[in-house]
UniProtKB/TrEMBL annotation:
Record note on cofactor: Binds 1 Fe(2+) ion per subunit.
Cofactor(s) the record lists: Fe(2+)
Keywords noted in UniProt: Dioxygenase, Iron, Metal-binding, Methyltransferase, Oxidoreductase, Transferase
Domain Fe2OG dioxygenase: 112-212
GO CC, alphabetical: cytoplasm
Coiled-coil residues: none
Protein name as annotated: DNA oxidative demethylase AlkB
Listed PROSITE patterns: FE2OG_OXY
Record: residues binding 2-oxoglutarate: 119-121, 203-209
Length: 214
């Protein structure tokens, strides 16, 4: 697509309380990637196992007070990286500022994420349709930032049987879902072979979440 039209993609309400902000993070993309590399130097990307014993195709790491974990013990948040056996890398303050600003665009004014899950998709990696529900704090939204190679995002309703709408998330796109859409089912189709000057053949996704033990 022409660069001018690419820059003009308007924001779209993809569900009640769910807003897609095309290009929103483009000005921060290089800094985000540099920080992701620094985070991954401390807490390396790893392939985690689902509780059912299947290896995820996506590689993950986390920053912030809490990191998302899945293994034979189940899905949960933990405050230490089990690979490096040390606390997760700090969430850079500009990560948090960007996520807070994006959440506010969608009307969520009290967002203060304690966790940032970072997913790395190589070609053919995918994420099956799921809900983000391990946080518990469902009054707070999820803020998602996409970098690199584009991907097909499926977004449905809070019932698994609700119809899925599909959108192409591109480099710098942000999606915020909360309120009536907080528990919406969503997923990412198998990543096609492609190239982005900043990420090569990979796609990165950051999801900012509020988690605290109750
Ligand atoms: O990669 C994405 O855009 C979505 C990731 C996601 O749904 C998750 O990490 O829970
Ligand atoms: Fe998710």
């Amino acid at each position: 697509m022409d660069d001018l039209f690419e820059a003009m993609r308007p924001s779209v309400e993809i569900g009640e309380g769910a807003l897609w902000l095309p290009n929103y993070a483009v000005p921060y993309a290089e800094r985000l990637m540099q920080s992701i590399e620094q985070i991954a130097a401390q807490a390396p990307f790893r392939k985690m196992m689902t509780p059912g014993g299947r290896l995820m195709s996506v590689m993950t790491t986390s920053c912030g007070q809490w990191g998302w974990q899945t293994d034979e013990k189940g899905y949960r948040y933990i405050d230490r990286d089990p690979v490096k056996q040390q606390p997760w890398p700090e969430m850079p303050s500009f990560f948090k500022d960007l996520a807070v600003k994006a959440a506010a665009e969608a009307g969520y004014l009290s967002f203060s994420p304690s966790s940032c899950l970072i997913n790395r998709y190589a070609p053919d990696a995918q994420m099956g349709i799921h809900q983000d529900r391990d946080e518990g704090w469902f009054s707070e939204p999820i803020v998602s930032i996409s970098l690199g190679v584009p991907a097909r995002f499926a977004f449905g309703g809070v019932k698994r049987s609700d119809p899925l709408k599909r959108f192409e998330l591109r480099h710098g796109d942000v999606v915020v879902w909360g309120g009536a859409s907080r528990l919406a089912w969503h997923g990412i189709s198998r990543l096609k072979k492609d190239f982005h000057p900043l990420t090569g053949d990979a796609r990165y996704n950051l999801t900012f979440r509020v988690y605290q033990p109750r």
